[in-house]
Each structure stands twice: as structure tokens, then as C-alpha cells.
Amino acid sequence: MKTYARQPIAFTHGEGAWLWSTDGRKYLDGLAGIAVNGLGHNHPKLVKAIADQAAKLIHTSNLYRVVEQELLATRLCELSGMQEAFFCNSGAEANEAAIKLARHYGYKKGIENAKVIVMERAWHGRTLATLAATDSPKAKVGFGELPGGFVRVPYRDFAAIEQASADNPDIQAVLLEVLQGEGGINVADTEYLQELRKLCTAKGWLLMIDEVQSGIGRTGKWFGYQHAGIEPDVITLAKGLGSGVPIGACLAAGAAAGVFTPGTHGTTFGGGPLVSAAALATLNIMAEEGLLEHAEQMGALIRAVLTRELAGVAGVKEIRGRGLMIGVELWKPCAELVAIARDKGLIINVTRDNVVRLLPPLVIKQEEANMLAMDLAPLIKAFLNGAA
Ligand SMILES: *Cc1c(COP(=O)(O)O)cnc(C)c1O
């Protein structure tokens, strides 16, 4: 089905931060499959882990214990400070689980229709409930009545949450990205997140963080919320978790732990041996290769070069982000830049019409990070001049 306006290019193979197209051209990957290929392409240890697991066992069922899934759950809980994990197959499903968990949490407290606070410019997925939680009129049009139970507030506006709380006694949770991806690379500040943590605790609400894009090292820490030193009740993961094999996870702690019991939620494929082995290998390789620190450094480098090269350019509104989640907001729509950059051998993305988004693999080398920024900056400048 024509669900994507696809770019006229296909890739045959890759190596690290490089991709080769069917016509033999080489591209520097500044997008990593939308924050998925953290280890880059063709990482030998990941390839071996997947091949070894495939040779042993690909799927059994969640009717049985799954050793690789248990190991992955334990590792994720160690890294995040969470206590329980539910595995699924995508970011939308991970958030669907979180939303169901919040509703069930309320139900167990005697609230029939628990509500969840969500943010302006949020992106949580395209299933009916996650689409309802998402703030994108374009994605919602034509799909009729979406599930209710969401209260939307402006992002980074603490007073708006207090106001929503006064108006809606059934609120049981807040769901947000600490660093919005699809919404244009918007960073929530530490003070806001800490206030939010305190409010959720005081109200008995679940603080649910969507780390589908910002998690697994992308911002320079395992999870974006760790920059603020807070402990959420629920986090959701997907994109970078399996380095390209489809896996999602919803982790819970504190009051959110123990909410789901046998029969309340499930999925056939979730956390199977193959994807769990790939995710476990991803986490191990990241730790072995020091990729968190590296992501932080490469992100700082790219932002610094872009800031220097684009200094004084009138059409550039802001350069922002954290680690290797970087946005360059322009004063005008710039979707054409994707094709302009591709012609020059750079894979980039534009979100919210006017934000150039970079999500390179975490393994990107210093000279590649420098090249990405040095090659991109003049294209942005020329685009702004030409279109002025
Ligand atoms: C991509 C994304 C999702 C949806 O994940 P899918 O795997 O596409 O369903 C949810 N939340 C955030 C923050 C995302 O970036």
C-alpha cells in the first residue's frame, strides 16, 4: 500500500555509518533508519549474535519461559532502575501497553475511565490509542473517532498540568517524551521534569516516559530521563533497542509494577529468542565500546560545527538537541533539503516541515561526524539563499 512517499533510492549494504545504493553510490548515514541502527550497519558482533541465535532457536512462545527475554529484562532493569518488562514489537505497541497499564492502574483504584495527560507536539505511534495520544492533525485526519481518555497540555508548561489536574479528577498518568523527536527535537528541561516527578508522586499518578526515540544511548545516557536524575514509573522503548530487529518494551517500577497480571495483556511475537538476543547484544556492545560517551561527544561536535558554520545565517532559527539527537530549525519549510542532501551523499531527515533532523548511528567516527556537519551546513546556507 502507498503508505509512504518513498524516496527513489534503495540500499544494498552498509558498513558503520555508510550505506551503498543499488546504483553503487555511497552515502553517509545521518539518520540510522530513524534512530534504529545505533551500532551502524553490519556490526560484526551484532551480526554474529543474530546468526548464532537464529541457528539455535528463533521463536517458541510466551506460553513458556524465554531465557533470552529474561536476560534482556534483567539487563534493561539494571540500566534503567525499573523492575518489570513487557516485550512487544514496535514503539506504538510499547506505548499502547503503557496506556493500557495506566488505565488498569486507575481501574484497580476504582477509577473506571482513567485519563492520561499528553503533550502538544507529542508523537507516540499510529495505532488508534497511540494516534489519539499523538499530536499530529495530519496523521489523524480520516480515521474517525479515536479513543478518548487523553488530556493535552502544552509541552514544558508545568502550570498547564496543574490546571488540567484541577479540571480532571480521573487523571492517573502523564505520558511524555523528555526529548521530542517527531515533534521537532524539543528538549524538556531538568527543573520541569523534576517538578513533574514530584507532582506525579503527590497525586499518585504514573510518570510515563516515551523513550522510543531518545532511549538506548542516543542522547549520551542510556535513557533521556537520566539527564534529569528522575525515576519514572513507566518507560517505553523500541527504535534503537534491537538495532533493526523489531522489538519494543514497556518497563514498569514502583506503583506501576504488578499492575498487569496473567491474561491482562500479551502478544505472540513479543520478546522472542531472536529479537531478545539482538537487543541483549546491542546493549552489551554499546557498553563494551563506550558508545554513550561517544554519542555525547559526537553530538557536541556536530552541534558545534553546525553552530560555527551557520553563525549569522538569517534563516536559521535554532540548533538544538542532546547527544546524537539533533535539530536545526529554520524559519521556513525545508522538506526539499532531504533530496538536496541525498544528491550530495548525505542521508538526513526533515520533521515538522522546518526542522532538519540528524540521528546518526552512535558508532559514527569523529571524521564522519565532522564531514556530516561540514557537508550539510553549506547545503542549508545555499537552500536559504536560493529560496530567499
Ligand atoms: C517512532 C516513535 C514511536 C512509534 O514507534 P513505531 O515503532 O513507529 O510504532 C513512538 N514514540 C516515539 C517517541 C517515537 O519516536
What does this structure look like?
- With 388 residues, the chain is an alpha/beta fold.
- It has 2 domains: 11-30 and 290-384, Aspartate Aminotransferase, domain 1; 46-288, 3-Layer(aba) Sandwich (Aspartate Aminotransferase, domain 2), CATH 3.40.640.10.
- It is built from 12 helices and 17 strands.
- The chain has helices at 32-35, 44-56, 67-80, 91-108, 128-133, 137-140, 158-167, 190-203, 273-288, 291-309, 337-343, 366-387, and strands at residues 11-15, 18-21, 26-29, 84-88, 115-119, 150-153, 171-176, 179-180, 186-187, 206-210, 234-237, 248-252, 316-322, 325-330, 346-347, 349-351, 355-358.
- The strands form 4 sheets. A 7-stranded mixed β-sheet has the order 4-12-11-10-7-5-6, sandwiched between helices. A 4-stranded mixed β-sheet has the order 1-2-3-15.
- β2 (18-21) and β3 (26-29) form a beta hairpin.
- The radius of gyration is 21 Å and the shape is globular.
- The chain starts with 10 loop residues before the first strand and ends with a helix.
- The mean pLDDT is 97.
- The structure holds pyridoxal-5'-phosphate.
- Residues 90-92, 95, 123-125, 177, 181-182, 210, 212-213, 238-239 line the site of pyridoxal-5'-phosphate.
Summarize the topology:
Elements: E1 11-15, E2 18-21, E3 26-29, H1 32-35, H2 44-56, H3 67-80, E4 84-88, H4 91-108, E5 115-119, H5 128-133, H6 137-140, E6 150-153, H7 158-167, E7 171-176, E8 179-180, E9 186-187, H8 190-203, E10 206-210, E11 234-237, E12 248-252, H9 273-288, H10 291-309, E13 316-322, E14 325-330, H11 337-343, E15 346-347, E16 349-351, E17 355-358, H12 366-387
Helix pairs in contact: 2-9, 3-9, 10-12
The protein binds pyridoxal-5'-phosphate.
